[in-house]
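Input chain follows. Return structure tokens only.
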Amino acid sequence: MKPLPVLPSLEISVLPIVLLVMGLCTPGQTEITSLDTSNIDDILNKAGVSLVNFYADWCRFSQMLHPVFEEASNLVREEFPDTSQVVFARVDCDQHSDIAQRYRITKYPTLKLFRNGLMMKREYRGQRSVAAIADFIRQQKVDPVKEIQSLQEVDAVDRSKRNIIGFFEKKDSDNYHTFEKVSNILRDDCVFLAAFGAVSESERFSGDNVIYKPVGESVPDMVYLGSLTNFDLTYAWAQDKCVPLVREITFENGEELTEEGIPFLILFHVKEDAESLEKFQHEVARQLISEKGSINFLHADCEKFRHPLLHIQKTPADCPVIAIDSFRHMYVFPEFKDLLVPGKLRQFVLDLHSGKLHREFHHGPDPTDSTPGQEDTGELASNPPESSFQKLAPSETRYTILSRDRDEL
């Protein structure tokens, strides 16, 4: 028998494929559900957790993932036999391009996580192995709500994290089921705690009660005033509290932020410089709340993101620095102190959307902005630095990246 050829090192496990080819193993009874427009909503809505493989048959990475995904499904099914708990499913994106477009699939294969039909922002980006995928699902099934045994625990919560605490008469209630559903969706963004019965009685003066404890020792609690049986209202309130308007970008979440496909407005600051971050957060909330869907508001550690700073001819010593990365070019806000000039930060973002920032880097100030009487020298401004953060996008050695022609910004 000829020895097997040496296989290239890939993040996707190829062992199941090799064993199948050698005839040393046979696939088990797979539980992969094929989704189409007629069944996708019904199946995903009924499952607590769903992991969906968006693939294309012609994609070699998709072909390599299939046996791994099926084996992981078999393993998980042994632990969670009830399909209302966990579903493994797949979508052939060539056959169902409308579904691929609906879920913004830009690469193959993509593994998206759903909870009760709602797609989670954080998709699966871990190792493509049976053990890793199965372990990921186990983690998703761990109850994110910690039960409080005494109210002293409420006073001792970690105020460096966002905490949402519910006080309920009993666990088996519509109010708590809503709270539990919200906690599962936002488990990566907030710490969820709950107290029941006699432990929570003193906090239930007007019925079941939910509060939010923001980051910071002296920041007052916020009380949820809506109906706890209304999931949409409860989720919207909790999401607003758990997901900050200005998020921190790290090397761990850089890929998923980049993949959202909208430009970054970034404050580079020294980690200990909380004052600059607070000013930036305040002005973003004051000037740019209406732009939330068109640009990501981020802050970054100057030391960790030294390279993007050097790219715009800055160093950590220059921090705090504000810049835009459009995924084509980077543009620097004139001076950090200008942040407090009314409307200046907003205009910087609007100039990105209008193309003015790009034009001025290539051709100098727009004629409408020229000082009266100033002659046009005919000189062209230097080209803006290329994007640094586009390098955090998904690796082409792991996915088949679909072409994404973005308009020039």
